[in-house]
Design goal:
Structural class: alpha+beta
Order of helices and strands: HEEEEH
Distance between the termini: 19 Å
Amino acid sequence: MIGEWEFESDYRPIPTAEGDLVRHIDQTRGYPMNRVWSIVEPGDNNLYAIPGYHLVNLVGYVVTETPWHDEELEAEWFISQTEEE
């Protein structure tokens, strides 16, 4: 698992034209699959980025400048403050 700052610096999420990082599946068309991440919320009030297209616990998708090469990689997208304390 990598932290959210490491994810941002290593993979560089691409914002939509509106400036949003999380997007609908329709906004991932035209990008290679290895640059698409699913943002999921597994029930612990935290959000994680996982490589590729997933549907379970899905919040949305992120497209990155840098492709992923490990399907098992997980990244923190947002960790609740109550979890960190």
